[in-house]
Amino acid sequence: MKHHDTLAKNPQSRRTVVKVMAVAAAGAMGASAARAAPATRMVRVEDLSLKNILQGWGVPHKNRSVDNTPIIIAGRHFKRGIGTHAQSVFRIALHQQAEKFTAMVGLDATADNHGAVIFEVLADNKVVAQSPLMKGGDAARPITADLRGAHYMTLLVKIGPYGMDFCHADWADPVITLIANATKLPEAAARYEGADMVPQIASGDPPEPEFHGPRVVGATPGHDFLFLVPHTGQAPVTLTADGLPAGLTMTPAGVISGKIAAAGEYKVRLTAKNGLGAASRTLRLVAGEHQLAMTPPMGWNSWNAYGMDNSARRTMGSADAMISSGLAAKGFNYINIDDGWQNGRDAQGEILTTPKFGDMKKLADYVHSKGLRFGLYSSPGKMTCGQHTGSFGHEAQDAKTYARWGVDYLKYDWCSYGNEVPQNPSLQQYMHPYVVMRQALDAVDRDIFFSLCQYGMGHVWTWGGREPVWGNSYRISGDINDSWGSMMNNGFRSDRALFPFAGPGHWNDPDMLVVGFGSFEDGPLHWSKLTPGEQQTHITQWCMLAAPLLLGCNLEHLNKFTIDLMTNTEVLAINQDEIGVQAQCIDSDQTTGIEIWARPLWDGTVAVALYNLGLMPAKANIASWSILDMVLTPSQKVLRGKQPVRDLWQRKSLRERAGLAMKVPAHGAIMLKVGQPRMED
Ligand code: GAL
What does R_g of the chain's alpha carbons equal in angstroms? Predict the structure, then answer.
């Protein structure tokens, strides 16, 4: 009998003393022994609903490992328990009726001696029991926590120092012992307090003209140039551009194209007018060698939207939707096809496309006709991760093909290149395939953004953006999925020393955005499993990190929340800030989960993000702005005393203040701009 189910179905019994099943400790005693010792009041935790468990990968299993195999820790079998994957959070309401929690914990045999985690039990927000760092292959350890007086218990599995892979964590024989005469049974609680809250964020744009997107764009002289000037305003809006370099023209719709004739830096004065007002902005055009990606790329990638199921039709539909949704008007301009378009080679070694894609040049022309840029995916290996043809041995030929087709972006994914190098490649070996492709790209007369995808191996951030690789972005981690743990792992990783390695032309890439409706690497299309509040945290952090903003969802199926989340001008402006300094964590509180991140901006102000990574609402405090000195660049003025503060998600100015104390919802974020912006030149 599942006693908690009975109780839930029969509210009458809530008022009566619960007759709790007497179970033998750790299942060791027989039934008669259990009857003889009815004093224990034990609730088996695996019997509770597991559907609210948050975990970094896969789904939790009752009495099975996360891989759906029997639970085995270092050779010891357990009949009962919960198989999960770090980072894992299971919150249980105790109603102050529990006495203690006991379990055996460890990494499952399926982790195959890999991985390392820490198991923690929290009573309300306090850690009351903790395992040491447990590695794959370590024997199961007992864990006991005092729960007296607690409203909630949280079973937490934290990722250890080796990252998230193989963190197959088991809670074996997890049991809650109730107090004597308990009146209410434990039950699975919401993932965190306030999980059903939808954050209030500003929506829509004013009818007066406004410019958005980057203030600086780079290109190589003599190469095709294409840039759709992001702007909004009630139609008709008249656009003019003064000071365009020789070789470029702008259409009335704001598409700048042509070839910049000579190297140099050009200041283009853009003006937009409609019946309601006017706006102007200076757009800096930097023409020279390796000047692409002066700000992080913004766009769409098919992988998390459709997996291997993308097609020319879907790609065209995505380009159309990029315009009609208003995303392009905010600066989203890459339409990138991920894995699955390649289809072997012809007798001359030319890469072929699958019938679903057909004529790639035609598709690129279609995307370009909208003022958008076109991206493709390949691997330096013989095969891509999805078992399609890679570029191995055909790098120069492929680069020429891409240039002929009109490709503007190449995601170059390590995949089967692992077969071409020894097990522990040297730095040289990690770099080699990317140097080869860089040389191939430099040999063609087209600007192609070079996106390195090799999951952070060989500390790619230390060399990926420099000569001789000149990567424009580099993935710093494994694949993201739409879980809190995965998003945390990629965006809030403990290794925060990465910020010096991002800057104009080369960006750390914590992977694509897991918002909206997509497949997110696990099967059928669904809405992101991140709550709206968690999605706001995700976008805030990707903007603070100056990360590529590549939507991984179905653009033809957007809801209002996703559009509001992705089109907030003031939030996106942080991502696109022209000095390109990645945020750093300037303060964190282990007890509440509050983290404060900051990054300096081109106009002398500082972007400040307040996060609450904990499970309960908590306050973030900044006693004085002097703490922001930590992130200021040498040319920046320090902020002291009362300063203007703007809430970017709300697009609202708050009162001037000398510091702050603000309540941040659990798993939520507040994004601020602090200081008096210098006037635009
Ligand atoms: C992975 C890559 C993903 C996606 C996938 C395609 O290696 O990290 O982003 O491109 O391959 O097979």
Answer: 27
Q: Report the C-alpha gap between 307 and 80 in whole angstroms.
A: 35
Ligand 1 pocket at CB < 6 A: 303, 338-339, 384-386, 413, 415, 453, 479
The CA 622 to ligand 1 mean position distance, Å, reads 40
Q: For helices 312-324 and 360-369, what crossing angle results, to 10°?
A: 10
Instruction: Please give the biggest Cα pair distance in the chain.
Output: 93
Question: Nearest CA to 285 among 190, 339, 352, 218?
Answer: 218
Pairing between β-strand 216-219 and β-strand 71-73 as defined by DSSP bridges? unpaired
Please report which residue ranges of 88-144 form alpha helices under DSSP H: none
Q: Which domains does the chain have, with CATH numbers?
A: 31-188 (2.60.120.1060), 210-287 (2.60.40.10), 298-575 (3.20.20.70), 584-674 (2.60.40.1180)
Distances (CA, A) of 385 to 417, 454, 488: 10, 11, 24
* Residue 496 banded pLDDT, cuts 50, 70, 90: low
From residue 349, alpha-carbon distances to 358, 391, 416, 497 in Å are 17, 10, 19, 43
**Which residue from 336, 389, 413 has its CB within 8 A of the most atoms of ligand 1, so it is best to mutate?**
413
Does the annotation mark 479 as catalytic? yes
Handedness of CA 123, 126, 127, 128 (dihedral sign): negative
Kindly name the residue from 138, 413, 509, 511 that is annotated as catalytic: 413
CA distance 393 to 127: 54
Left if phi > 0, otherwise alpha if psi is -120 to 50, otherwise beta: which for 483? beta
With cut-offs at 50, 70 and 90, classify the pLDDT of residue 24: very low
Residues 528-580 have pLDDT tens digits of: 999 999 999 999 999 999 999 999 999 999 999 999 999 999 999 999 999 99
Catalytic residue of the set 224, 479, 629, 647: 479
Q: Counting every residue, how long is the chain?
A: 681
Exposure of 51 in the CB half-sphere (CA atoms within 13 A): 1
- Please report which confidence band the pLDDT of residue 62 belongs to, taking 50, 70 and 90 as the band edges: very high
DSSP string computed for 271-334: EEEETTEEEEEEEEEEESTT---SS--EEEESHHHHGGG--HHHHHHHHHHHHHTSSGGGT--E
What span, in angstroms and rounded, lies between the C-alpha atoms of 546 and 575? 5
The alpha helices in 413-483, defined as continuous H runs, are: 427-442
Rounded to an integer, the average pLDDT of 337-343 is 98
Q: Report the mean per-residue pLDDT for the chain.
A: 92
Q: What residue type is 295 in one-letter code?
A: T
Give the C-alpha separation, 288 to 261, whole Å.
11
The model's pTM = 0.86
The ligand 1 atom nearest the CA atom of 411: 10
> CA 298 to CA 338: how far, in whole Å?
15
Tell how strand 264-274 and strand 449-453 pair up. unpaired
Give CA–CA dist 60/85, Å, rounded.
Answer: 7
Spacing, Cα 511 to ligand 1 middle (Å): 10
pLDDT tens digits for range 186-218 = 999 988 889 888 998 999 999 999 999 999 999
Over the stretch 65-110, which tens digit does the pLDDT of each residue have? 999 999 999 999 999 999 999 989 999 999 999 999 999 999 999 9
Task: Express each pLDDT in 666-675 by its tens digit.
Answer: 999 999 999 9
